Amino acid sequence: MIAREMFEEFKARFGPLIQRADLPSDRRLFVFVDRSAVKYVCQHIFRELDARYVASIGADDRPFSGKFLVAHNFAFDHDHLLCSVLSYLPPDDPKIDSISDMVPAASWAEREMRDLIGIEPVGHRYLKRLVLPDGWPDGMHPLRKDVSWNQVPDQYDDQREFKFDEPPEGCTVVPFGPFHPTLDEPAHFRLYVEGEMVRGCEYRGFMVHRGIEKLAESVMSYNDIPMLAERICGICGCVHNVAYVQAVEEAAGLKPPLRAEYIRTIMLELERLHSHLLWVGLACHIVGFDTLFMQSFRIREPIMWIAEKISGNRKTYALCVVGGVRWDITHEVKAELRYALDKLESEWSAVVAAVSKDKNIQKRTRGIGVADKVLVKSAGLLGPVARAAGVDIDCRRDHPYAAYDRVDFNVITEQGGDVWARLLVRMKEVFESIKIIRHCLDKMEDGPRQLQITDELPVGRMGLSSVEAPRGESHHFVITGENNRPRRWRVRAPTYQNLQAVPAMIKDQQIADMTISLGSIDPCFSCTDRLETIDLHSGAVKVWSQEELLKLTRAKKA
Amino acid sequence: MNRSVIWMIVSGLLNVGLVLLIAPLCQGVLRKVTARIQSRQGPPLLQPYFDLLKLLGKEDIESGEAPVMQRFAVYLSLATLLTVACLVPMGFAAPMNSAGDVILLIYLLTLCGICTLLVGLAAGSTYSLLGVSREMMSMIALEPLFAIAIVVGAVHTQSFRLDSVLNGSVYVAGGFPWSGLLMLGVMLLSFQAFVQRVPFDISEAETELMEGPLSEYSGPKLALLKYAQMAKLIVYSALFVALFAPWGSGFVFPLGWLLFWAKVLVLVLLVTVVAATHARYRIDQAIRYFSTLMGVGLIALVLASYGH
């Protein structure tokens, strides 16, 4: 179904509650809905039309339209359509019906909206603070336009403590994190443990906010932001870089040159290669198999060298600007890249053969951390986690961007939905990535790398971009604005969705399986925690005072 | 004081000194070989000595639930192992032969395990307690195995004397009896667990429990605990050699002595290779594994008592 047909369908069903629509192309639909109908439209889309939940966005649009704006984004993967359900809220009553009852995956996004913009999701069952630090005063919402990016709240109270839920009867609390050898970044899981069995957990994350979105919306310019965007993540930075640029290009109706699209594809796949190799190594490390960890890293190294050769950096490639790319892939690099790929392919085949036959690893990963199709749908799980459960989604094929519609590749799926299946998916995807890069090298033609943009970008236009990161779909939403910068830029990294399902995945499992289950979604906490205006003066250091940390790590019984 | 008592003390101390001297070197070999298997350069062979010296030179922090208990547990861990070292032949006859019998040895070996529990309990953090509960579970399933091996030897030799049991006694009674061979297999398959290396480093499991019982220790205490771990590898290897591979111990001085340490080194290398090529077991999987071995061990015991 293309966008227009979808819109007609909505109109026929909901009548005047559908206010208007914006149809920039067959693959995008922005439908504006009366606020009373948002819940029902979303229910219709999610349940009856069986769309996939992507993200919810809140925006303070008062300086422009005098209202607040809410958007719920959905993806129709079979129809190659991204759909955004938008609604304006009056400035004096920013409330909207929560959709998290029908769409559990929206739970975090709605809590985030409440924390940061102050839009109240009415009917949400678990309205605990999600993003803001413990001492942040109530009623101050940092992403509102009347709060400046560097404002330090006067009433910040570093004595205020976060109230954790009561553990279930008969359970001991085992604090996992904020610092733990298998967590590369801080996040806190409060595990409720009965003997060796995990019965539940509470998550408290968002400890490494850097205020990226606010910074972008208030001080940076269109072409600064890609460099900021790729710093969202230390592993899949290029994904955010490309996704942001594509969202802006879409909003402004720009089409980058062909060569730029191929270069973007190659860099994204190089990133997937090194990310997957890193993950397989880490998974082995978590289950105590350090030899494969070391070998994966050895095999991965030449990929980093190639990336450095192309962009000057092993990571953070600073690849895109709006309308093109900054680096070229020369003939010399092409030859080296082909050689590196050949070597990688043969070495990786050996690793895959070794892992596939290893009974020990299978023992630790089969039937562990299971996320079945039902959980994938309700929690909006993405990437290898979804594909390992047999859910055939991949943005590269479903919502093609860059040059992915011009190359051949298979979307790898497995059944089982356990850690083992995720391991298989990631191992096989490495070969697909190699294939994609080779295709791109073959097809790439000479030409310009950047568009010449002479005019100001149009104001108030919206753009969506979904890019398949190694961990799943990264979704960026942009509303263009004045002063050469976007009005609103929202990033939804894949871990944001996948992490929400971890409590369900580790329930009734042994505590020993906790780390590999969590590891199996390839969590990226800095991606998840990307936004928010936590000022450096009042940020993490004060929130987690040493006393609190000691208390947390030494807490024994609730 | 007569001459034999002095000799006993001197040779006992000699064993202790040797264990303390060689244990870090074996750890160095282990780390180097592991690194090579993993395509790494690896640390210098002598690195464990430097590590220990560095840790010993650090500030001794008294923390946790019971500082006195912690210190006691740490001393006890190393001391127990060194006491065992006095009873085990290391290239010569068992030095303190007349000071005890194999029953004492079995007690001391159990005490080694209990020390780990004490260490964790005294620290008292959540992760050490988790480690302790795992250690306790695996101890119950694991410790009897060495005891069975020793008892099988004692049954064959009709003696509890250290010098007769710790001399390949599992094979006596005419060549290679079934019970001896069975126990050899059982001990080979469980050796990794006795020296607490991957895949059986379950109670420490860095990536799950943050070193479990050790997680609250630092500085000199950690040094002693690490030292005890290294010594454990040597002492258990020596025990294994004495029970199951005594051949050549009768050779004249440097030859027999060198042969013994060569056998210990082979065991260390074996441990290294197994550790580098396996993923860690989960506690329930490990217990199931141990209990199978225990079943086989009991069969061996029955066979031994019927003279097979």
Please provide a written account of the structure.
The complex is a heterodimer of chains A (558) and B (308). With 558 residues, chain A is an alpha+beta fold. Chain A has helices at residues 3-14, 38-48, 62-65, 107-116, 212-218, 225-229, 237-252, 258-286, 290-311, 331-357, 359-365, 373-379, 383-388, 395-398, 419-443, 494-498, 502-506, 514-520, 525-528, 540-543, 546-554; strands at residues 18-25, 28-33, 52-61, 67-76, 81-89, 95-97, 120-122, 172-176, 188-194, 197-204, 320-321, 324-325, 462-469, 472-479, 488-492, 509-510. In chain A, the strands form five sheets. A five-stranded mixed β-sheet of chain A has the order 1-2-5-4-3. Chain A has a four-stranded antiparallel β-sheet with strand order 8-9-10-16. Chain A is globular. Chain B is mostly helical and 308 residues long. Chain B has one domain (3-305). Chain B has eleven helices and no strands. The N and C termini of chain B lie far apart (44 Å). In chain B, 49% of the residues are buried. The interface between A and B is medium-sized, with 34 and 32 residues.
